[in-house]
Amino acid sequence: MYCLHSLRAFRSLSPTITPVVYTVRKNTQSMEICFEMKPILIAVAGLILIQISGCSTYAGDRYSISVNNVVALRLYRGNEVGVGEFTSSHPSFSTLSCWGVMRVKTPDGETFQNYIRNALISELKIAEAYADNGQNTLTGHLDKMYFSESTGQWKILLTLTSTNGESITTEENYAFTTSFYTDATCDQTAQALMPAVQNLIEKLVRHPRFGQLVMR
Asked: Beta partners for 159?
C-alpha cells in the first residue's frame, strides 16, 4: 500500500497503479490517496526515477582573475616564477559525487589539481611574475578536496613546493548557501568552486612565507 498527498502526483502515476481508496481531511486541507501497485511496475518506476535523478552533472565556472591576488603577486613582479606539475592522490580527480546521484565537475573536464594550477598561472601572468622557465618553479600537491552539500562548504588543502626547497601548506574552508532542493544545492556547490579556489590562492600568495618560495 502506498500513499500520496497530491492529486497531481497521483495522476502522473495513474497509468501504473490501481487506486483503492482516497480520503479528504478537511481539517488539514490535504488529500491522501492510497493505492496498490503491481510489483514489476514498482521496479520500473524506481529505475526511471534513478535514471532521471542520476543524469545531472553540474560544472563550475571557468576561473576568473582576482584583483586581490594580482595585487599581492605584483610584489614579486620580475622574479620569473615558473609553475610545474600539480598532483593529487587521485590522478583523474575531475568530478565529485553530490547527494550520491549527481556530479559536480570542473568547467572543462580538467582535474581539480590542474584547475588550481591553471588558476595560479593566470594570476601570476596578470601580475607579470610568471615565466615558463622561471628561476624558481612551484609544484603543488592537492592533499584534500571535497565538499559538504548538507552544510554548504568546500574544503581544500594544498601544499605548494618550490625548487629552492621551501614549501607551504594552506587550507581553504569556503562556505556557500545551499537549497532545500537537491539539484539546486548541487548547482550551488558547482558555482562555489571558483570563488573557493580564488580564496585558496589568496591565502597562498599572502602566506608569510610565500616570498621565500619565489624570491631570487
From this structure: 141, 169
The count of other CB atoms within 10 Å of the CB of residue 201 is 25
The strands making up 17-25's β-sheet, listed across from edge to edge, are 2-4, 30-37, 17-25
Q: What digits encode the pLDDT tens for the residues 92-142?
A: 899 999 998 899 999 999 999 999 999 999 999 999 999 998 889 999 999
Gyration radius of the chain over CA positions: 25
Q: Do the Cβ atoms of 17 and 40 come closer than 8 Å?
A: no
Contacts 24+ apart (CB under 8 A), 192-195: 192/60, 192/147, 192/152, 192/154, 193/60, 193/61, 193/104, 193/106, 193/115, 193/154, 194/60, 194/61, 194/62, 194/63, 194/64
Three-state secondary-structure class, residue 113: helix
DSSP string, 24-91: EETTTTEEEEEEEE-HHHHHHHHHHHHHHHHS-EEEPPPP---HHHHHHHGGGTTS-EEEEEEEESST
DSSP-derived pairing of the beta strands 57-59 and 102-105: parallel
What is the percentage of the chain residues whose pLDDT exceeds 90?
A: 66
Would the pLDDT of 21 be above 70? no
Dist CA 98 CA 95 (whole Å)? 9
